[in-house]
Design brief:
alpha+beta, Trna Endonuclease, Chain: A, domain 1, 6-stranded mixed beta sheet, 3-stranded antiparallel beta sheet, 23% strand
Length: 202
């Protein structure tokens, strides 16, 4: 499950390192398939559908009597899903995609087009402000913070205004967008990637 580190920053949990619990359904499956392997699938995937090799947690051997041998073989290519890591339920498409990118279930290249069609909350000095404001990062870069929901906006901000991602691109002046910089899953999207995504739509 999600926890906080020494700086009080939210961090995702890790899947349990112990062998997966053997259920009644797993025992019934093993009974019907003696002399085989019982594969444990990440909970985010339908075991009856298409399951990529990296979504397999590991496998138990099944003996000739159809009994599970409790000698679990973990899959070293396994990529835990956001659900397996205890990430919170995403509130929108962008949050869902960021979680999948973080867990290597989707490529980072998928992010810019989704940002364009997402509502983001940006820093504002007043409710009528129509520009965006950036802040220096620890490495000296100017980043424009933007949050995927108003609930994530820092309480110390004077105001936050909602803006559609595509409407923000021309206001960035070449600076990258830092999405949810204080949440479990963050992303820095360069302005040129958003500009390219806009161009690709035409």
């Amino acid at each position: 499950m999600a926890q906080r580190d020494e700086t009080n920053r939210l961090v995702p949990g890790r899947p349990a390192t112990e062998k997966p619990k053997i259920t009644r359904e797993m025992r019934a499956n093993a009974k019907a398939n003696p002399n085989s392997w019982l594969y444990v699938i990440d909970e985010a995937f339908d075991p009856n559908g298409r399951v990529p090799s990296w979504a397999v947690v590991g496998a138990y051997p099944v003996n000739g009597a159809g009994q599970i041998v409790e000698d679990f073989h973990p899959n070293d290519r396994y990529r835990p899903s956001p659900k397996a890591l205890g990430f919170p339920e995403p509130a929108n498409n962008l949050e869902r995609l960021l979680q999948l990118v973080r867990t290597r279930h989707r490529p980072a290249e998928d992010v810019p087009p989704v940002v364009l069609d997402s509502t983001l909350f940006v820093y504002a000095m007043s409710p009528v402000q129509r520009t965006v404001i950036g802040f220096h990062n620890t490495d000296g870069r100017v980043l424009v913070p933007a949050y995927t929901s108003k609930a994530l906006v820092p309480k110390e901000w004077p105001h936050a205004r909602a803006v559609l991602g595509r409407d923000m691109v021309e206001l960035l002046a070449g600076h990258a967008v830092a999405i949810n910089p204080h949440d479990i899953v963050t992303a820095v999207v360069p302005a040129e990637h958003l500009e390219r995504a806009l161009t690709d739509e035409r």
